[in-house]
Amino acid sequence: MATIAFSTPQRPTRIAFPFKVFLPLSLPSIVLLLFFAAPMGLMLGLSFQDQETGTFTLASYGRFFGDELVLAGLGRTVVMSGLVAISVTILAYPLAYYLARSTSRWRTLVFALAIAPELAGVVLRTYGWLVILEDRGFINSALIWTGVISEPLPLSKNLFGVVVGLTHVILPFGVLSLLTSLQGINPNLEKSAQILGASRLAVIRHIVLPLSVPGIVSSLLIAFTMAASAYATPALLGGAAFKVMATMVYEQVLFYIDWSFAAVMANVLLAMMLISAFVGSRLESRLQQKLHL
Amino acid sequence: MSRLLTILFRASLIAILAFITLPLLVVVAASFSPTSAVTFWPGDWTFQWYPALLESRWLDPFLLSAELAIIVSLASGLLGVLAAYSVAYQKCPGHAAIMSFLLSPMAVPQIVKGVAIVLFLSSAGLYKLLGTPGLVMAHIVLTMPYVMRMAATAMFNFDKRLDRAACILGAGPLQRIRYVLLPLIRSGLFSGMTFAFIISFNNIPLSVFLVRPGQTTLPIAVINHLEYSLDPVLAAVNVASLLFVLGTIILFEKIGGFSAHFHGGSK
Fold this sequence. Notes:
A: mainly alpha; B: mainly alpha; MetI-like fold; 2 domains; cell inner membrane (chain B); MetI-like (chain B); cell membrane (chain B)
């Protein structure tokens, strides 16, 4: 292989000075260093600093973990994000499986329907859910009109409303991550199992589900992290009674004007993401090991 | 048994698709509803809410959002191509590490980036940057990684033999970039810029920290209003802004043909 008879021309992309290679990189790097890296570093630094003396301290974090209201918000965030992760993955799975296997002409339409709401933005979708879930909204007025109930069901301004709204917002991302994983499974495995007499259910249970574990884990993880940091949907569908981390961070900045405590909250949120990413990757390798045994 | 499973699977698909489309249909219906209380399916249809969109309290935020989205998609298109050129095309030394640095903003939640940027502006005494300049910069941080990733993918897939051919035929470096590289990565670049446009136009979690009172973006004007009432005007605002986004995407597609990027990329 090494001795090819004809001579290949000199690689035109090779440039003598690496300076020229790095030059186009300078502008984007400066933008990110100035408006991303520096702010992030500053935020991390300030949260460990004593406001007056400037020495290292964990006092702000002590304040965070000593505040019952804040801890309750953290707990709500974890529960909400967990429920959203599970419901996104359950709803996304059949869609992704259909998109990965179908050859029908409906496939493109289904794909467009699954992804298109992304264009509409969070506000429009949350407004839609408010109209549907409100006390005098679509569902309640229909149920009262038909006489099923006499008092409206509490569908919004609580955990239920937020989970429904966030599931809707995050579903496309679950579909995409499961789709990648399901497309990677060789369809012949399913066919050969069926030829050997496995029922549809057995094929799903013993072949498709185990092989799609990485996709399931990544869907759970993406949905969890997106839900934990979502702002507008919990603010509108959760109302004043259902405060989560993101809405509390916003309050700290805009109402209490306590930037340093907001920074502490933001750092805890960031740590939560990193921990869940770590746990997710560990979980994935564990499960894969188990399945290969 | 197998037949029943197929029917159940189809039914669940339809139910999930209904769940996805229902809120959007409801908003469209609400924007044509004659009563200000959005309740059940409206009996009559009306366009009465749409003229209100021309009032300055909706028009001004719309203009700000549109201006931001255009600036942000152009700027992150330029910055993304420059970065991708070094990292993915020239494969500069340490390109893998530089790539992960450039993509790192994607790993940080928007609300965290928002707090960091506000804290930075306040401790650097740059309050003046609140409003449009701050919003532009923050949105670029948000969208540039997407544009760069898409442009980089297009450049990784780029057939370097074409570039060599141009070189043999005597084209200079700038000519090769202008006539060979850029046209061939165009669809990737335009899909990235379209993403940037949509992300910027619809953005809340980051913008909410940076808007100035009396000068907000459209999504924030809408949520501020939504906290008090479910006014059908809001439905009309939402439908109009969705149409605006769709129109822009079609325009981008006409200029850049980015759907080719997805057909080519999904092989």
